[in-house]
Fold this protein.
Amino acid sequence: MSEQDVINISSRMSALPDLALTPGQLETVRLIVHGNSVIDWNRSNFQTVEDVERFFRLHLLDFNDPEDQRRIRFVYGEAVNYLEEHLGLQFPEDLRQPDDVRDVFVVASHTGGFRRRQILACVILKLMHVINHLEAAELKHQTPLSEAELLDLAERRIVAAADQMRREGFPLVAFYGSRKTRNSTITKLIAKKENTAATIFDKLRFRIVTEKKEHVLPAINWLTENLFPFNYLIPGESHNNLVQLSEVLARPEYHGLSETIQGGPSKEDGRLNPENNPFSGDSYRMVNFIVDFPVRVDHLVNVRYGALLGRTAMVLVEFQVLDKETAKANEEGENAHQLYKSRQRAIVSSRLRKGARYKKKK
């Protein structure tokens, strides 16, 4: 796939009747927008076992599949063993060997009262997150599939989600994707200060354009509930110079919420986090973030590791979210794509000839 649209949706369908976000959804959106880590959370947001099952489906794990159940149990056991052996934590038997792992996710979400069990449950979930991520990366290295094949798998899932989003009537203007060509990757590697292939996060990139600016955060929330698990956001790689959460929390329907959402009031909510990109125009606006996107590989190759490494690998995908008016402004004046490319080529040329200085763009 070249740097062309994968899917472009002209959405004239009516908007969803209610795009308001719950406190738990706002916590998730804030994590995405600010590029924070779920490791720093002190509770989860699973009210029912059904919530837990939906979350695992985003990881491409099915509780009705015995192999997936074994995988979840294995990761849970590894997490508990690490915490007991390396941190000296002690767990009550119903957390150490729960009848149903899903119940621990609900316990980790409780608030109020004596919270020792809730905190211990939350600690286990954090270790499960780390271990599953680590072993998914190992599976990717052990799997005889190329990066292009893994990106194809991710692309197909994302395109299907775009169609679902449209069918549900979400106020979309466009949802399209592109993949970097070899020449574009070379140019970016030279232009970046950190010129290693590992820092090229946008080999597969999708842009979502909503009808209005107030639809941007609900769109991000939709993605975390229908496409990818929010906990595999890449921390520190989110950029937002479009939406201020402090303005959202100031709305009447969210009165007092800033004092109750996880972490309490955040100074981050009052400021934008502009992308430090020497090639973009100063008025270029959007929210973008990077996700380690899960893809199942067992239908393509013989996965020999079963519960040890699972059947899901991950690939990096960038998402860009903005509204129609901002998208139009981003194509005008100093923000024009042609000028972006011109500034980038100038840096590449200068760096190759004599070393580049990342000056203020003109």
Observations:
- Residues 23-36+145-354 form a domain with the Beta Polymerase; domain 2 fold (CATH 3.30.460.10).
- Confidence is low (pLDDT under 50) at residues 1-17.
- The radius of gyration is 22 Å.
- The longest strand covers residues 312-323.
